Each structure stands twice: as C-alpha cells, then as structure tokens.
Amino acid sequence: MKASWRSFIALLCVLIACIAWSPAVVALPAATAVDSDLALAAQISPLASNKTPEEIANNPAVKDAMGAAWADSSADNATTRHEEGGWIYEDADGNLTVQRWPAGNRSSIDPCPPAPPPGGQVVGEFHTHPNWHPPDGKDEAGKEWKKGPSDEDKGAKLPGTTGIVTDRSGNVTLY
Ligand SMILES: [Zn+2]
Asked: What's the CA-to-centroid distance between 149 and ligand 1, angstroms?
C-alpha cells in the first residue's frame, strides 16, 4: 500500500512537472526573441529623448543636413537622381548631430551602422525621395512614384525614433 501511494505521488509529480514545463519550453523561443528586441532597443536608445519629432525635424543642424542631402540627391537629373539620408543622434547634453549614410540608389538607400556619440543615442533618421514629381508623382518616363515614406521605410525605422522623408515638393514628412 505504501509503495503504491509512493508510485502514485511520484507519477503525479511527473505529470505536474510536465504540465508546468510544457508552456515554458514552448514559450522560450518567443521570450528570447522579445528579450533580444528589448536589448537592441535599449542599446539604440539608452536615454529617453524629450524632443518631439517636430523639434528634431526643425533643429538647425538637422535642417542643414537634410538640405545638403537633397542637393546631393540630384533630383533634377533624370539619370543620376538617387536617395540620400543619415542618422540623427542626440548627445548626452541634448545636442543633435547628423551622420550621413553612403549615397543610395535611384529608389533605395542602406543605412550605415549607427555610431552615436559617447553617452548619446539615435533619435531619428532622414532620407530623400527624389523621384516623385508634381502634380501626380510621375517622372519623365511616366513612372509613378510615392511621395511619403514607404511601408519598407516604416518597417525599417528603429523603434522609438523619428523618421523624416523629404521630397521635391519641399514637404517634410514625419513617420
Ligand atoms: Zn524611402
């Protein structure tokens, strides 16, 4: 009798352990993925910026850099126009600086790895859309282009940062 009780309790313990462990084991990959996303976000934005997207876009250093990027995009040249852009950093004193990315292609651009100043963080990014033409977005060849940020732009933006797109109409679109 004692032995069968012991067996029953042992079996019960095994069952409880199985039930307790199954969801934990199943949930492990997802939990790990979330943790690494949070770790990445913390690495990119170690400080909470108190600047609004509008303050970032209107900062003189950022506006100057966006103007230079637009000029470098050769928007008026049908064969050489291309996207330009860069990272916007906030240093430990709250000053904004810009690091330009390598020149992009006709309708895409790849950011360089972010290198914020010591104690600083990425607070935004900007890039140009030189292909859109008024009034309907069609270029000289009749191809229609998008004016504001694409779905890819929105998906690629670092979490918690401000994205800025400038286009031929002089519009500055925040996303
Ligand atoms: Zn874009």
From this structure: 5
Please state the pTM of the whole predicted model.
Answer: 0.73
Alpha carbon of 166 to ligand 1 centroid (Å): 9
Distance 42 CA to ligand 1 centre (A): 25
Instruction: Kindly give the confidence (pLDDT) of every residue in the chain, 175 residues in length, as a single tens digit, with 9 standing for 90 and above.
Output: 455 556 544 544 444 444 444 444 444 444 444 445 555 554 555 456 789 999 999 999 999 999 999 999 999 999 999 999 999 999 999 999 999 999 999 999 999 999 999 999 999 999 999 999 888 999 999 999 988 899 999 999 999 999 999 998 878 999 9
Q: Which residues lie closer than 8 Å to 163 by C-beta, 6 or more apart?
A: 124, 125, 126, 149, 153, 154, 157, 174, 175
